[in-house]
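Milestone M4 deliverable, item 7.
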Amino acid sequence: MVQEKNRVAFISVLAAIFLTGFKLIVGLVTGSLGILSEALHSGLDLVAAVITLFAVRVSDKPADKEHHYGHGKVENLSALIETLLLFVTCFWIIYEAMHRLILGKTEIEVTAWSYVVIVTSIIIDLSRSRALSRVAKKYNSQALEADALHFSTDIWSSTVVLLGLICANFGFFFADSIAALVVAMIVIYVCYKLGKRSIDMLLDRVSPDIQIKVENSIKNIKEITHYHDLKIRSAGADTFIEVCIHVKPGLSIDEAHDISHQVDDEIMKNVNRAHVHIHTEPENEIEVSKLITNN
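Output delivered:
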C-alpha cells in the first residue's frame, strides 16, 4: 500500500517539474500571461506534489506514545497548505491580468510552441489526475485526492488558456488576459472546496456520509436494542469510531462480546480503515441512568 502511494506521488512530482519548466520557458519567450499563469500554477502544483509525497510517507506511520491516533492528520494539513498556495497563485494572476487589461498591454507572441506546451500539459494532467484519483480512492487518501484535484484543475485551466491563444492568434490579444482571469476563478473554486474539507477534517467535523454508514451498520444488528454516544473522527485515511451499545439483559459476557464483534465487522465492511471501539451495556441500565438523572 505505502509503496503504491509513494510511487504515484513521486511520479506526480516529476510531472510537475517538467510542466513547470516547459510552461515557464514558453511563457517567457511568447510573453503570454495565460501560459505564465499556468507556469505559476504548475509551480505551486510542484510544491503541492512535494508536500503530498512527504505527507503520504509520514501519514502511514503507526501510532506511537506521542501520537495515539497515528499520523494521518499530516495528510489533512498538507491539503490545507496546498489550498493556501493556490490562493497565492490566484491573487497574482488576477492582479497581473487586470493590470494588463487596464494599461492595454495585452499583445503577445503566439507560436507553435504555445500550442505544444498547452496540449502536452492537458495530456499529462489528465494522466496524472486519473492515476492519483484511482490510488486516492483505493486507500482513502485526502493528500492524494487533493493532488488529483490540482492536476484536474490544470486540465480545465489549460483548456481555457488554449482558447485564449486561439483568439490571440486572430488578433484578439485581450483574450489571453481574460483567459488568465478565468483560470484564477477556477482555481479559487477548487481552493474553497479543498480548504473547507481540510479544515473540517482538522477540526474533527463528522462526515454525514460516514455517520450514516456507521448508524446503518449498527441498526443492522438486531440484537442491539439501543446505542448512544456515537463519536467519529478522521485522521488522514483512518476513521476512529466510538459507540456505546445496549443489548438485551441476561446475555452472557461471551454473547455480548460476540455482538460487539458483529458491530465491528459490519462497520469495517462499510467504512475503509475504520478503528472501532465499542462499549457494551445491558438495556436495563438505561432506565437506571434515567432514574439517577431525574433524582
